[in-house]
Amino acid sequence: MDQEKIGKFIKQIRQDHHLTQKDLAEKLGVTYQAVSKWENGKNIPDIAILQIISKEFNVNIDEILEGKRKKEKIVSFNYLLIILLIILGISIIISINIYVRKNNNFEFKTISSKCSDFKITGSAAYNKQQTAIYISNIEFCGKEDHTNYKRITCTLYENYQNTKTKISSCPEKKNKTLESFLKETKINVENYSSNCKKLTSNTLSLEIKAINEETKTITYTIPIKLNDTCK
């Protein structure tokens, strides 16, 4: 995934629609600084924002991620040959369409924290075969903490039927404050084995461990919820 190509593509979409970075930011419900980072290849929109861009500007999410429009293939056929192919292939086309609709169309739901001390922004994308999780932003809203920790780590867990399973973890950071660590932290789980209905019936949690100069470990456990139900 080339962030620079994605940024140039988003910039081209914006310019084609005669929008400033501020205009696009307001339309998408983000800051203009976020738009600037996308266009400069320093970051990419999360799944929920990509869906909005796709619907708002009539562009496929795949095209955004590839950083280019897909060329339309124009094929010329003899009229009688077209009729024959339609008659012979109509059952196959219907079967493929049904399969694609049932298995490949992704639904998107937002996820957030159930903890007042932390604000989490993210998305879950799912179909009948898999679920992907993307946490794009984590903010600490509790008591001010300016401690420069020796080490900070975070781990995403699934709690299901009294079993705690590690899903993903973020890279360990050294000599960071909690705020600076969270600003740099994003979690992307592309092939989460669970399905959406299981995701709503269990509990996801993000565990953050911070070790100070006295080697004392402070642990934060943040419950995460899926906003809305699965279809």
Structural overview:
With 231 residues, this protein is α+β, with helices and mostly antiparallel strands. It has two domains: 3-66, Orthogonal Bundle (434 Repressor (Amino-terminal Domain)); 107-227, Immunoglobulin-like, CATH 2.60.40. The chain has eight helices and eight strands. The chain has helices spanning 3-16, 21-28, 32-39, 47-57, 61-66, 79-103, 178-184, 196-201; strands spanning 107-113, 118-126, 131-140, 149-160, 163-176, 187-192, 203-211, 217-227. The chain has an eight-stranded antiparallel β-sheet with strand order 5-4-7-8-1-2-3-6. Strand 1 (107-113) and strand 2 (118-126) form a beta hairpin. Helix 2 crosses helix 3. It is globular. The two termini are 30 Å apart. The relative contact order is 0.12. Mean pLDDT is 81; it is low at 72-77.
SSE ordering: HHHHHHEEEEEHEHEE
Radius of gyration: 22 Å
User: Separation of termini?
Assistant: 30 Å
Spatial sequence of strands, sheet with the most strands: 5-4-7-8-1-2-3-6
What is the top-level CATH class of the largest domain?
Mainly Beta
Q: How many E strands?
A: 8
Proper CATH architecture of the largest domain: Sandwich
Number of domains: 2
By helix and strand content, what is the structural category?
Answer: alpha+beta
Mean pLDDT: 81
Please give the structural blueprint:
Elements: H1 3-16, H2 21-28, H3 32-39, H4 47-57, H5 61-66, H6 79-103, E1 107-113, E2 118-126, E3 131-140, E4 149-160, E5 163-176, H7 178-184, E6 187-192, H8 196-201, E7 203-211, E8 217-227
Antiparallel strand pairs: 1-2, 1-8, 2-3, 3-6, 4-5, 4-7, 7-8
